[in-house]
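[job 4417] fold queue: 2 targets
>>> target A
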Amino acid sequence: MAICSKVGFPDLFITYTCNPNWLEIQRTLLPINLKPPDKPDIIARFFKTKFDNLLANVTKKGVLGKVLAYMYTIEFQKRGLPHAHLLIFLHPSNKYLAPEYIDKIIFAEVPDPVKQPKLYGLVKNHMVHGSCGMANPKCSCMTNGRCSKYYPKKFQDVTLVHQDGYLAYRRRDNDFTIEKNGIMLHSDHVVPHNPYLLMKISAVIVPSAGGREGNYDEIKQYLDCRYVSPSEACWRIFSYSIHGRKPAVGRLFFHLEGENSIYYKDFEQIGNVLLKVSVTESMFTAWFVANQVYDEAKLLTYGQLVSKFVYVKRNRCWRPRKRGYTIGRLIWVPPTTGELYYMWMLLIVKKGPTSYDRLKNIKGFKHATFR
């Protein structure tokens, strides 16, 4: 949410699923006569390599436009294959504000098998849903006699943006078909995809233009349990990241005067504990000092400070940032905390205070409490 408050809503949502038939995986397992489920470590390693390649193409090379920020999470299917969900925040000059721009990066049609044979084969192998419905009522996607993914989709000549932010992608009723399980399927069964990424990565890549709002009751949709697949176990053993984001989000702590946290070791003498500098100095009080030393700091709120300054823990002080960029986020406190909550409300808007008393000073009048 800190990233959204800074750069706005995400523009693209990409789902990327591992393909056990990747040539690299098959080439590794064939000499030892094993199948992909037998080597979850190989699955994890190759997916990590492929996902890093995808991330570099999207964020660094900008194949979908200039990227301001991104975040991703890695999940694991019940059958053991890892897949990633990637949110992309585009630069204002590269946003896809009109349906005709969306049609340039997201396709949901059967390609020409003569002019684009490679793309046609990839779409046939990875990007076709079904067959389901009346042709295959026992398909896993069928719920109460209907496809839970709402296939087949409607044919339409242009992409439509609904009021709730969801998109109905362009699906022209062309003459191209794909045979699957003995049934001829048209563009109404094609999953949205980006041709460039599909041909480069050769896996299930489902991009979608970002919606704006929607309410989901996740408590009713999921079970309260945990399942760890072999691929996930290997992923964690290799210490691969489950989540990632850029720019980084730094949590900023704060406290009332004289109520900062004090850390000490077991059996440490209380006298020695009270002599520690950390008893009177903290990251938050160092902000007051920075406002006295640096003119630039006076122009920033506490949450904005981390974008221009970095906290040096060893010296307990804020120094001007030389490189990188971080978005600040104040830790949330509930209204039941009283004074701490009202101080949090002031910290969101107040710039440049040099002490607790200055923080209470509003329009030249010093209030007795933060409330």
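>>> target B
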Amino acid sequence: MNKTVWILWLQGIEQAPEIVRKCYESWVYHNSDWTVRVLSEDNIEELVPEVKDIIGGNSDVIIRPHIADLVRVNLLKKFGGVWADATLFCLRPLDDWLIPALDENGFYMFKNPHNDKVSDNWFIAAPKGSRNMQYLAETINSYWRNAKFYSAKFKFLNKVITKLVVLSLSKRTPWLSQFVVHPFFHRTLKVYPYFWFHFSFNRMYYTDPGFRMFWDNNKALPASPCLKANHTGLKARIDENKQLKKLIDEKAAPVLKLHKNIILSEATDTSVIHYILKTLKYE
């Protein structure tokens, strides 16, 4: 296993919000045997030049989170390691929980974050050469290679059509949400939903029995505990949220998904976010 944690902030870590820098610090703090590497616009083309070609004629449409989607799968396909979103906070060392759950041809993502998704992509881990990681990367890459979406001047129409499609399909079940990324939408409507990555994963799951068996047998943890702090509210009082406090104290979730817009100086010392940050206990 390549013991590298990959984090992306396109403008560079020096320009990142304080919460992003704290999340980076948490990975360094808990994983002394790992290399934590922050990527930016200055070095992603050097590492994964293929991403630019995959985006192709859609460069005026694609937004930063979706560039990050392409970067993450191609990095892990090529080098292996761990992808952590810039707002993902580490609570437990990777060696304690991740390594025992990985196999050489698999990958690790947290399961069932919402009723329209069977996985989430803010954390992905894979050994270099993993067959299933290669399959995931090829699926994600082909979504953009095989489509030409509306250009920037049609953004309003794109948003309207996308919202109608997503509201009618994706908010029901993962089985239905896979159709949002059916080639019909690429070629006819020329739009893509915000959660195209997750829905593409759903499509893999429901159309490929071998992949479905792999995912059903995967030892990945459920995503919901990792999302609890965000759902509770990072500015909420920790003493009024005993279940969340217990989860943090016991490190029942190895990572916590936070939000880039939280301003630490605006949260009280008794807030959820400051309680989380106190887990970084330096001597």
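[job 4417] complete. Note on B: The chain is about 45% helix and 10% strand.
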